């Protein structure tokens, strides 16, 4: 296609729908978190958190991609191992045990790994400076930064979320009206059916952000569309695979699973539990994969193999600059919450809405942080200068979850899978996508959107 692949880590409508459609309120600021959403407060659970290296890298030369990706995956593995050590060593050592036995060795490992990343880039481009400052990690929660592992961080982390992380949707203020589409905008939709992941396509990988790392996400993903997606997926492997989509769309769409848990559940001793994700994985009741137009202009075809992410899986510790979580309930879609899970009335489904960026730079199908090559429209719905509008992806996921405030207080609740240190907070919701549509199918989608048709 002639588009550059940058290494490492669409809005008004083309839709892939399963299990029934849902009319979702527009959000006042395009793609932004709901108005009034607050940054989640820190939990008292002990977890080890480290600065994110990938977001601080320059554009990675293609010659260095494999080595950089491999070492970024190793950094994630090191954090996981350190948090596992924190859990297993609870109650051991003196006041400086965590610093001497866990944080110190972790820093040494990260210094070596970060140096390998800088060296790999430096062989073919200017060596990035200042990365060593990202090596030290910190112990968050439970107050004692130098403690002896007394707090039982893993047990406390699995106690999250708490009742304070839930809100009755009827108590959430109504959202402001969304951006209005102008006469020059694009109003059409394109719809196909890709299922609800009834076939159970799950894994804890993320080939976009951590390619080649089998547990790179440290949480389980649901997949629809491409049947082959795993840690080792490439553009080529995806293009050769089958799909769950009825129109032959081979794109891969994925998001973290939602689990239902109860205080009465038996002990869980699988790899998910090791990552502090417990409970029964829920199959979504409805899945809509919807591409939409732009409020200010027509859309152009997105290139095959374009990759995009939305939200921030580490927004609890990174802050909410990239957070895009939208939680609501059917029948109440004018009420949206970002940092609390909704409690829905009887007959209403818990609903997640994941809007993706849709202003493409016209050249790259990926970028070092998986965000720079495709960004969100501004508050008026227009794409920034130097970018062009492409069909915007909206994932809408519905769940039949019957839990009351009283049940939640007793430990029966639902929660996202997350990285261990993210404590299952709803603000960490996110999604990933690679476009593997044929050029013919993409042309059909663009035509439908630009002519105002619902195909």
UniProtKB/TrEMBL annotation:
Superkingdom, natural source: Bacteria
Q: What is this protein called?
A: DUF1996 domain-containing protein
Q: Which UniProt keywords apply?
A: Signal
Every DUF1996 domain range:
208-433
Q: Where are the residues of the annotated region Disordered?
A: 166-203
Give the residue range of the signal peptide.
1-28
Organism, scientific name: Actinomadura montaniterrae
- Please note every region of biased composition (Low complexity): 181-196
